[in-house]
Amino acid sequence: MSKEKETNELMEKVVSLCKxxxxxxxxxxxxxxxxxxxDYGDLGGELLHNIKNSxxxxxxxxxxxxxxxxxxxLMRQEVWQATGHADHFADPMVECxxxxxxxxxxxxxPNLQEICPECNGKLGEPRQxxxxxxxxxxxxxxxxxxxxxxxxxxxxxxxxxxxxVDAYHPKLPFGMAQIGKAFRNExxxxxxxxxxxxxxxxxxxxxxxEADWEKHFEYWKEQMSMWMEDIxxxxxxxxxxxxxxxxxxxxxxRTVDFEFDYPFGRKELFGLAYRGSFxxxxxxxxxxxxxxxxxxxxxxxxxxxxxxxxxxxxxxxAYTEDTSGEETRVFLKFKPKMAPIISxxxxxxxxxxxxxxxxxxxxxxxxxxxxxxxxxxxxxxIGKRYRRQDEIGTPWCIVVDFDTLTDDxxxxxxxxxxxxxxxxVSDLNSYIKEKLN
Length: 437
Known about the structure:
By secondary structure, the protein is α+β, with helices and mostly antiparallel strands. It has helices spanning 3-20, 42-61, 77-83, 85-88, 154-158, 161-168, 213-231, 278-282, 307-318, 353-371, 382-392, 404-407, 428-436; strands spanning 24-26, 38-40, 66-68, 74-76, 90-95, 102-104, 127-130, 133-136, 146-149, 174-183, 198-208, 238-242, 254-262, 265-276, 287-289, 294-296, 299-306, 319-322, 329-332, 343-347, 374-376, 396-400, 409-414, 420-424. The strands form 7 sheets. It has a 7-stranded mixed sheet. Strands 21-20-22-23-24 form a 5-stranded mixed sheet, sandwiched between helices.
């Protein structure tokens, strides 16, 4: 099998699994879908929450030098005019003269840049296409009502820098962080949830003295790698790319991209940028060190994380095919703390009221109250239930059988190995907690 075919098949399997098991659906699917938008189902939402909660705990709530924020999506147009987004946040676009389809010029085959990849028609000259979604705020129809859906979360942090300093009086170095939606009118959204028009970011702006930026840059590079490994991203597929000077954003003096080996190629996962003092200078904001009596403009280190890209990298890292048996067994090898469902409780037979009542009252209900992410499954035979839970990444399946009624033990089956053991019902709580930790 060719490498390309193998790659396409893997993505097809992943996309199919995401829909079949309720992780991700195409946006507006019943009306034909809207390109570049996706809806997360119950399991996908749980995995997203686990990713974001892990990030927030490590980088915000567990630290003494970080301040969380939740800035508005809509901002005054002056913000985007000051940063240059209103005039220059653009990609080169070409249009086919025959089929009228549009493409990003920089993503076309350089040897076939004048030929449409869809119909082989002739492509027109590249022109700049601004990717910000424009809208209007209020009842007025003139230019003063123009606003934009933010294309990044960073500016919400920078315009609240002074408010944060005035409210909390932090000492340098310190950071501000937020998780939120951003929007870009991508010319050609593609590769499932990798490149979307509506996406979510987890972003930090860490304010430092200019003389100290290099040591803080290295510190944050290490912290980003540690978090990726902690949540279960396959680090053998993660690569650090030092962005060349000619490819740096105009505000950046150094950028390192963390790239991931996706099935469709090695692409950016997260980024770490040294933004200098560009943003605070742009908004004419200074910092006053009250103790030193010094007025200055801090420099900024920016660790930037895409939530959706983290989801995809984590999902691909967890996706496993076990071919040792007669049939291929697919399972998601999430770390237990990241799995959407921690454990599934089942009565061996759903037509035996005594098993159902015991499983529901003495096992499921107490675990659900304690852990929250506990599922109930009594549909089909036990083998089918195991396969179903394997495909959504549930670490442990708990089965109440007839022995349970006499000795108060249940069968606990491990997702990764398939091994089973008997555990006392009274010990289930501590059993799960110990394995989670």
